[in-house]
Amino acid sequence: MKKIYLHVFMLIMASLLLVGCKEEEKAVGEGGIEEELVVAGNQDMTDLMNEKIFKAFKEKHPGMKITYIPGNGAETVAKVKAQKNAPQIDIAILEVNSQIDGHNNKVWAPIPQKDIPNMNNIVHKADIPENSGVPIFYSPHVVSYNRELVEKEGLPVLKSWNDLASPELKGRVALQDPSGSFGRTALIMLAYANGGSESNIQPGFKKLEQIASNQPTFYKNQSFINQALQEESAAYTVWALNRHHTYREEGNLPLEFIVPEEGVYVSNSGIATVVEGAKSPNAAKEFINFMLSEEVQKSLAEDLYLNPVIDVEVSKETAEMLEFDKSNVKDFDNKVISEEFPKWLEQFNQEITPLIGKEM
After folding, report:
1. Is the Cβ–Cβ distance between 248 and 255 less than 8 Å?
2. Rg (Cα) of the chain, in Å, rounded?
3. Backbone angles phi, psi at 197, to 5 degrees
4. Within 10 Å of residue 220's Cβ, how many Cβ atoms?
5. pLDDT tens, 174-193?
6. Which CATH superfamily is domain 139-264+324-355 in?
7. Which of 13, 36, 190, 290 has the most CB within a 10 Å radius?
């Protein structure tokens, strides 16, 4: 009888082992690449990811299931932090300050360059701490304006970041507050325009006081800035060049942009990270490598007007749209920004917000 029980027990264990192997077989495909992948990134990339990039990646990895979770960088990092003990996201694609926030909270896994062969082709370098991310696209932050509205109302074409504070522009500037990347850029570039920098931000706050008295609000949500430009309640804003082109082409707005004389900040707005403890780390690295392929880099440029980080041939029209004056590019110290930003936000809320719309 004992032999029978032992035989039955061995059969059960063998069955369980076989099921486990089959489950493992389902979870991991050829070459050790997992068959499910969850990617979080910017809302603007949703359609391109789902309709083109994911499809192309799945052609190389049949059976792969990929999910896209849209949201801004701060939202994505908040999700990753909340899921730290049981990550649900494998890859986060986000701008540099959110990437550094995640790095400081130890939620990104290191990415050895040997795991991403296409990193050897990157020509646009980015200062990313401890191999915790890979640049996949970038875009400069520029001053954008409605050409027809400016001409109709006799408003000036700006030359300096300081011109945003001109009394002539009263009620016509739509700026994001510094909690957003575009508002943060405006504050820092206003500091540069007045003898300061990210390490000496007070000249920027001084100029922001004048801007506050000139405009009805500082916007938290980018969609409200889009609406203000569409309705012509605003003529000027500060945002990324890719957004400028998107709303000019798709929103049918007569927009032009300038790089002010004090220079421009080039945002590493697309840094791909692998989440620490991700369920599909191998698939994540494979996908990041794919994002650095000529095929995807060209698509990012042609479809979303994002500057590629590798040398890739694009149409003449796209190349002209992505061109900007690179003679005075500011390299922000992102470590300083990460450390000082909470103080900036507190100062903005306490000192600038009460001045909105009030005569100085």
Report:
1. yes
2. 24
3. -170, -175
4. 13
5. 999 998 889 999 999 999 99
6. Periplasmic binding protein-like II (3.40.190.10)
7. 190
